[in-house]
Amino acid sequence: MSRDHLQSAPGTSAETPYLGLLARDASVEAYERPVLLARAEGEPAGRIAALEEARLLALRVRAELEGRRRREAELSALFETAHDLAGLRDLDAVLQAIVQRARSLLGTDVAYLSLNDPARGDTYMRVTEGSVSARFQQLRLGMGEGLGGLVAQTARPYVTDDYFQDGRFQHTHTIDAGVSDEGLVAILGVPLMLGPHVIGVLFAADRRARVFEREQIALLGSFAALAAAAIDTANLLTETRSALAGLERANEIIRDRSGVIERASEVHDRLAELVLRGGGVHDVAAAVSQVLDGTVEFTEEAAVPAEALEASRAEGHAVRHGRDWIAAVAAGGELLGALVLRGHPGLDPVDQRTLERAAMVTSLLLLARRSAAEAEQRVRGELLDDLLDARDRDSRLLRERAGRLHADLDATHVVLAARLDGPAADADEEAAARRRLWSAASHLAATRHGLAAARDGGTVLLLPLGGDTATEVARRTARHLGTAVHQPVTVGASAPVTDLAAHPETVASAYAEGRRCLDALHLLGRPGDGAAAEDFGFLGLLLAGERDIAGFVDRTIGPVVSYDAQRGTELLRTLDAYFEGGMSPARTKDALHVHVNTVAQRLERVGRLLGADWQTPARALEIQLALRLNRLVTPGPR
Fold first, then answer.
1. What are phi and psi of 547, to 5 degrees?
2. Longest pairwise C-alpha distance within the chain
3. Which pairing describes strands 451-455 and 413-420: parallel, antiparallel, or unpaired?
4. Beta bridge partners of 489
5. pLDDT in tens, 515-563
6. Residues near 290 by Cβ (< 8 Å), separated by ≥ 6?
7. d(CA 300, CA 150)
8. CB count, 10 Å around CB of 637?
């Protein structure tokens, strides 16, 4: 970019150069140039400050635009499946799309779908994605055999971290040979249900050991529900076409069912378009309200009648409750809320099905957003873990990884160690509190363009310093996290650190420094507070080993503390000024604005209280440490 493009005429708004950068979708580094140029040309401080403020605002706008583009891309794959189902024309194409998108969203090596064959009494592979083995693609399994047989028998999801070491299901030579030929290790299977009947199984598998999270199991279960709905819809079409050949009445039925399908397609096209434009669950509810000519609301689980909500979840259909209709929004076995149609007791089957499909779309939307947020949290934690352990020393790769998370490792940062201080009733409650702390820290790191990871029973954060001091960041973080988890959180911060991409090993030493500050706050009896290394200086080393702080202060300067408390004198203040003035009475009287004789009298009184040797080097050091500790334990005006 030339100087002419960056330089603005006198009186030009500070936002002007950044609007151009936003319009050109310039890189993050380009936003530094207007400020650097202004400084190089000696612009007034006010102009530079205005440019800095405009830069931060422009970067926030850029980040928001990038976030929206990312969310649109993530939601597109998910709602294309609902769109395909609504406009079902080719069952094989819909099932193939479901398997492809399930593999993509779960990030597995292979995904596949098997269907039961009632005529032969076994089950067969219908659709595969990512498979390279012909033997695996042609497998037929006897009922009750393999992981799929266990899923079909119990109508419940099953997951194995290591297929060949898992003895919960029946292994056969044919199945094991096919799985081995494909190289699969970790397998997740969820049932395809039509009412109470299992018609097949949807699988996601990796060629390495892997633990599938609960949200991933629920997400695959939702895709299985879509696959079952596609099969159900295809069966309905087949039955309708068969009936049309023999009965005139069947002609009326097929017209009705075609109308249902066309109406469902129109509704889902509308919902898919709405969500892909960036809409949320409440926008979905508003769109369905227009279609059903009523008021549809997304409601949290606690605000819905429990009996009706459980009935809807168990039956998989919307149920009537008084003058309302309730459709459970669920993923796998987890209830996420409900869509409630208010004051509309008369609902025909077509509208009931529309409400049910809207609830399914809402559950997919909620799960997709949760999965995206949790995936970003895990990536942030992995990068910070690598920095703490100095596993990756390639500065270019570190910068690229951080850039994808909107973090800048070339900026000045502070490392913070955070730990819960509230009492826990039992181990389960403590674990839940730690999860809440990790979630709150991850959210804070994402909003501040930093990183967060769980470590040593607490949480470690890497946050940009900005224009604050390390102490201000520590205290603000302690307040923010404490409010989020509803119990005290103590935070210790390191001194500022720079150039982390080139020197990642500094993160580990800064974390150790933050933990020492954290220990110091605990020893000083200040839970729920925040402090940085700059607040303690070399006293942090003393606090790491000294456990009786109050006893040390009392033994060293206790008589002076008691004398001031009883008589309202200022011996402690005089001692502070005396040592800060290099033990010079003249500089002490200037600092206190008193006569030198007053200083001499006070120091004489100190000598009588502490002993004649109080000014020897050893005693003087202990007294200075005790004075510093006394100020830290009893914070107040200095």
1. -105, -20
2. 121
3. unpaired
4. 420
5. 888 888 888 888 889 988 767 644 554 554 444 566 667 778 889 999 9
6. none
7. 34
8. 3
